[in-house]
Amino acid sequence: MASDLELKAKEAFVDDHYDLAVELLTQAIQLSPNNAHLYADRAQANIKLHNLTEAVADANKAIELNPSLSKAYFRKGTACLKLEEYQTAKAAFVIGASLAPGESRFTNLIKECDELIAEESGVIPIPENTTSRDVPTEHVQPENDVPEQQAVTVAKPKYRHEFYQKPDEVVVTIFAKGIPRNSITVDFGEQILSVIINVPGTDIYTFQPRLFGKITPAKCRFEVLSTKIEIRLAKAELIHWTSLEFSGGVIVPQRVNFSSVAGGQRPTYPSSKPKRVDWDKLEAQVKKEEKEEKLDGDAALNKFFREIYQDADEDTRKAMKKSFVESNGTVLSTNWKEVGSKKVEGSPPDGMELKKWEH
Question: Any keyword Repeat (predicted)?
Fold first, then answer.
């Protein structure tokens, strides 16, 4: 079962359906929780979705289960690199390179980390002129004729930001610690986000990207926390954003179809591959697993009531809703004739008293 789900997840990944890949791999992990490859593969799908902290967690779990799995270190390093955790990324790539000495990708990424770590230090010295190292001092030109060695200062963004998304919103996080609320201005346009941080005595920080897709300004909001500013952008269209900022290219939106998912219909996705995912079979497997799931206590009781409700006719469902609501959750009746024409009074268990909630 787990291997079938893993194969379907790989097909979804190839077709760029990363959300589906994560979902299928999660099901596979539930069936095979000690399979390090499943965690490493889910880390890759999460990286594609910009779920970077989740990707690091998956990679760490894969390393815990199999410390010699080089791709787990590669996925961890990649996610940390995107999170600008350059030292941690380099450490992961170094271990991965030792486990897979023939793979040049580790060497290239280690070099990239070294360059970024140097930039992060703020100053990169210009290399000395090697032709003048061994010249005797008496032949050195006067000081005023020698160009003065300069240092290149690399400008770093004052605050780091990242984003993740849900079907109906995009969440942007700006990591700015201890900023007063009155020093922050956030405005929303049709396809523009504007963030200005103006703390007295410091340079003004401005972040004004043109967004990948349109938003609904009236539904957008933000919150200032002790270590960050969290901004929630309400999507105007239910499409998947492949980046936060508009790239200027031709965009083919991948829409999220809520109605088909909510209604239990079989979702369809465009694909260039001749082989299709057997959604009917997958749905049947999930239902079978839910039916065979063994629960106890309140979980078993809730499952029993859900099954009654799902298989019930309209009158039975109305009776269950009305009796449960009017009795404050103490009565659950399936007889509409009995409860439809009168208010259902609460019936607390023996030894307990029903009290009205006072606001």
Answer: yes
